[in-house]
TrEMBL record:
It holds the Pfam family Isochorismatase. PANTHER family: FAMILY HYDROLASE, PUTATIVE (AFU_ORTHOLOGUE AFUA_2G08700)-RELATED, PEROXYUREIDOACRYLATE/UREIDOACRYLATE AMIDOHYDROLASE-RELATED. This is Cysteine hydrolase family protein. Residues 18-205 form the Isochorismatase-like domain. Keywords: Hydrolase. One of its GO terms (molecular function) is hydrolase activity. The lineage of its organism: Bacteria, Bacillati, Actinomycetota, Actinomycetes, Micromonosporales.
Amino acid sequence: MATVDALPGPFTFDPATTALVVIDMQRDFMEPGGFGETLGNDVSQLRRVIAPTEALLRACRAAGLTIIHTREGHLPDLSDCPPAKLNRGEPSQRIGAPGPMGRILIRGEHGHDIIDELAPAPGELVIDKPGKGAFYNTTLGEVLAGLGTRSLIVTGVTTEVCVHTTVREANDRGYECLVLSDCVGSYFPEFQEAGLKMIAAQGGIFGWVAPSTAFIAALQPSLQRT
Ligand code: TIU
C-alpha cells in the first residue's frame, strides 16, 4: 500500500488496484477553434495542466499503473447527442458544425482527439463518452470491474464539469478518487478553486485532493521495483 499526503487526510492506495484516468485532454477543449472556444471560453486557461500531466504520465507508465484516457464526443450522425446538449449556442458553432479542426466534438475529427503532448501510449485504454461523466453510456464500469480497480487517480479538464461529474459517478460506484490539483483545469479560476474545495470538503464528500508531486512521491517505491 502507498499513502499520499492529501486533503482532507491521507489517501491510501494499492498501485495494483489503482488506475489513472485522464479526462478529455482533447484539442476541442484545449486549443483555439474547438468546442471550448465556441462556448465562449479562454482556452489558454487550460495550458498549465499539460506539463504536470506529462510528468505524471511518465511516472505512472514507469510504475506500470493502469492508464485510461477519455474523450467527450458524438457520433457523426449525432444520434447519441440529446437535444438538451445539441441546441445550445449559435447554430453555426454547435456540436457537429464545421470548424477549423473538423466538425465540432465529433468522433474521428482532428479536434476530437487528444493533444499531441498527452497522446495515449500503445496499450492504454481510450474511452469515448457522449456525456460529461466517464461512466454514462460507456464501458468504463465493466473495464474497471474486469481489472479489479478500487482507486482512481483523476486528472483532466474541466475541473467543475467532466472531472466533477466523473468523480461523483465514481464515488457513488464505490471507487476512492484522488484528484490531482495541478493536473485538472478550468476556464474559470474561481471554479477551479471552488471545484477542488468541494471534493475534499465535509471529510472528503467525493474524494481526496493532492498535488501531483505528492502522488508521484508516493509511487516512488513502485518505480524502484520496476
Ligand atoms: N464546457 C466545459 O467546461 N467542459 C465540457 O464541456 N466538457 C468537459 O469538461 N470535458
